[in-house]
Amino acid sequence: MDVRSLGYVVIESTDPQKWLEYGTDILGLMVASGMPDDAVYLKMDERPFRFAIVKGDADRLQCCGWELRDKADFDAALADLDKAGVAFEKLTADVAHARRVKELVRLQDPSGNTLELYWGGQLDFAKFVSPQGISGFETGLNGDMGFGHAVLPATKLAETHAFYKDLLGFGDSDYMHFKFSPDPDDPGQGLHFMHVNNPRHHSLALYEDQANPVGCVHLMVEVKDVDEVGYCLDRVEAAEIPIVSSLGRHTNDRMLSFYMATPAGFALEFGTGGLQVDWDNFTPTVTTLPSIWGHKFSMPDAE
């Protein structure tokens, strides 16, 4: 398969108004116009929306939307899923219209994360006007690099990694393995970073996690100006939003960023300067140090 980008996420929320305020007041995203009024839609570039927040009984990531190149690739992808015995649901024209795409299907990876594969994503070219004055987010030409990346929990890490690599055609970028105690018998937890067919260092990461009620470890958005990271950090501190990680620079993708809590309970990384890669001349890495400096993590206390 030829997956091109992480096009959108759908987030379930018990109170979408919190995401409306968080998305505009803190992240600097724009309320998307002309979208269905049964959800909160947030925009950051030429695409009609990137975040859809729907009313639900829980606070969690509902699904990630992955973009395929065209109708031929979409049909070939469905044939590959059929051949592999992977069940999928063809979604209705009404859902496709709400997502502003031509066609899409919904399926689950081996760890139970829900994803949608689609083709024909619309461009509305409605001018992005950030309520916080952000000049722009790094999403590529016509948004072809996607909105950022998602780190998803993987209860079956090896099987889920193989699903994305061998069936969906994702490529390996980097691998890390973490131990959280000095116990030599501690098996630790693995973390696969994976890219799709655009220059972003990773659009997906799979974290070996056996208990994640919110369906996501973190999402990432990237701005073009380092000062915007500082301005956002000021907004977060003023709003007393928990900071999950201090400012730092990652080793593998060189992102300068910090992490904050979201209304859904997972984290959001807000950064700049992420590595863009020529995949024809890249060798996947195994990294032992997650950050060059900074990124001191402190998880907020559970309520």
UniProtKB/TrEMBL annotation:
One of its GO terms (molecular function) is dioxygenase activity. Residues 5-120, 146-273 form the VOC domain. Keywords: Aromatic hydrocarbons catabolism, Dioxygenase, Iron, Metal-binding, Oxidoreductase. It holds the Pfam family Glyoxalase. SUPFAM superfamilies: Glyoxalase/Bleomycin resistance protein/Dihydroxybiphenyl dioxygenase. Its cofactor is Fe(2+). Belongs to the extradiol ring-cleavage dioxygenase family. This is VOC family protein. It comes from Spongiibacter nanhainus.
